[in-house]
């Protein structure tokens, strides 16, 4: 598998993960314990930052 293909696959997987975390936070946030909610929001931000970096790297690897 080429590096570009691998980066695209990872980026796609991270996009799906980001969407799933965001959906969970938005749909269930009110029912969560405050500490759980805070951790999920922090995870959402971290995954988002990682995704932005992967997109930049994939763009440069062309």
Compile the SSE list and pairings.
Blueprint: H1 3-28, H2 34-60
In short:
This protein is 85% helix and 0% strand. It has helices at 3-28, 34-60.
Explain this structure.
Helix content is 85%, strand content 0%. With 62 residues, the protein is mainly alpha-helical. Helix 1 (3-28) runs antiparallel to helix 2 (34-60). The model has no long low-confidence stretch (mean pLDDT 94).
- Measured as a percent range, the helix fraction is over 70%
Tell me about the biggest sheet? Answer: none
**Would you tell me the structural class of the helices and strands?**
mainly alpha
Q: What is the straight-line distance between the termini? A: 14 Å
Low-confidence stretches: none
User: How many β-strand runs?
Assistant: 0
Overall average pLDDT: 94
> What series of H and E elements makes up the topology?
HH
Beta-strand content estimate: under 5%
What does the oligomeric state look like here?
A: single chain
Q: Return Rg in Å.
A: 14 Å
Total number of helices = 2
Outline: elongated
Descriptors for this entry?
62 residues, mainly alpha, 85% helix, elongated
């Amino acid at each position: 598998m080429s590096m570009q293909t691998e980066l695209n696959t990872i980026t796609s997987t991270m996009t799906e993960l980001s969407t799933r975390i965001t959906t969970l936070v938005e749909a269930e946030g009110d029912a969560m314990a405050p500490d759980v909610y805070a951790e999920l929001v922090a995870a959402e931000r971290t995954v988002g930052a990682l995704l932005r970096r992967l997109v930049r790297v994939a763009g440069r690897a062309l």
